Amino acid sequence: MKNLIWIIFISLSFSACKTTKTDYTKLELNSIELYNINNLNISTEYVTKHWNKRLQEDGDINAKIERLEIINLVDIKTNKKTLVLLGTTNQKSVKTATKLTAYKNGLKLSNITVTCTNCNSDLNIQLNNKNWSCISDDTKNDTCTKTVTLVTE
To answer: How many angstroms separate the CA atoms of 74 and 85, rounded?
Structure first.
């Protein structure tokens, strides 16, 4: 009987110690602490400003980030979910994104950002075996382009 009581006590202790994972996709983005690759706290305005600057510098992309959101992307090869910060522009065919990881009391942006342009699909960015790829609903569309940016600062 003593052993049964100890087993119940130990199992209750383990279940009480479990931490709940935060579902960042359901939270208001401005309520989440974001960090850059240098572990500095940044705002969504900061991300939008820098992503828009990069879009303008990357060439003939006449688009601006209108909305940021956190989504889960399912890798089509590994079937694993990855938390992603997705920037939607004023053109449906342009999306930009970066992977997110848990850091301190919030999320840290990856040093790799991908932008898909001229890809006619609602969600034209996907992960394939942990690598970014761009997709288009139009199989004849050969202008669908992926640009990868490595942040080093």
So the answer is: 14
